[in-house]
Amino acid sequence: MASPSPQQVIESQRQDWNRVAGGWEKWDRFFDEQMAYLNHRLVADARVRAGMNVLDLGSGTGYPALLAAQTVGSTGSVTGIDLAEQMLEAARRKAASLKLSNTTFQTSDVTTLPYEAASFDAVTTRFCLMFLPEIPKAVAEIARLLKPNTWLAAAVWSAPDKNPYLRIPMDVIKQFIDLPPPDPTAPGIFRLAKPGELAGMLQQAGFIDLAEQEFLGDVRFVEAAEYFSSLMDIAAPIQNLWTKLSSTQQAEARQRIIATAGQYQKGSVIALPIAVRMVAGRKPG
Ligand SMILES: C[S@@+](CC[C@H](N)C(=O)[O-])C[C@H]1O[C@@H](n2cnc3c(N)ncnc32)[C@H](O)[C@@H]1O
Question: Which end of the chain, N or C, is less surrounded by CB atoms within 10 Å?
Fold first, then answer.
């Protein structure tokens, strides 16, 4: 089967993430509590300070754009962009409830951004770049938009083996249906998992002072059923696989996912490991 065109990838991404926007809003407080440390890390790696003009790519429901907005304060501004208007609607509601008037969310594709060259003092992006059909093009676009001597900080998922949080349902689904081995160059959750891959693209685009770290953490649940429901509500790519199962298979698969997650019980919580590749680079001055 022919690979989808870049435009087809972008359209299906838009549909996928609009579809799960309600789930992201439903679980917002939970995931904010669980993964806020990644936002702090990105805002630090991008050297965000008061008064800066920051661009956040693939902001979804506002991560890490809203933390960047609090950091730049009233003399700075943050622009968050995303393909999925419904994800951004949730981000706007959160900005309003936090009384952040320095934040704008705009629907746009990361690969073709409607901004002048050298408009931004920092670029952040969490869990977005691996879904792009043309990552090197997007990285070149980021380099164009940054002012000299400023930073890009990106978070992408590391390898499936180190991410039981994401991997458990995928492994269980494969017990029921034959899935073709993933094309390592196709957009998807683990597209940028390989060490050095994103950093190499940054280098190609002229970034210097490259830094890369595999950042280990976990997501903690009171019970495994909560893990199952929350992940299925927000993870559009996993939902797409899930719908390939019959309802009988889904019932059995749910039990197996919950049983496997239960093996990660530590004291009073189920702690599912995650591994995130944090990559940063500076545009030369
Ligand atoms: C997993 S969500 C991450 C959202 C948010 N950054 C976070 O970490 O919570 C991925 C987001 O990337 C967005 N996205 C995917 N491809 C995109 C593209 N080509 N341009 C802009 N946004 C894109 C999706 O719409 C989705 O909201």
Answer: N
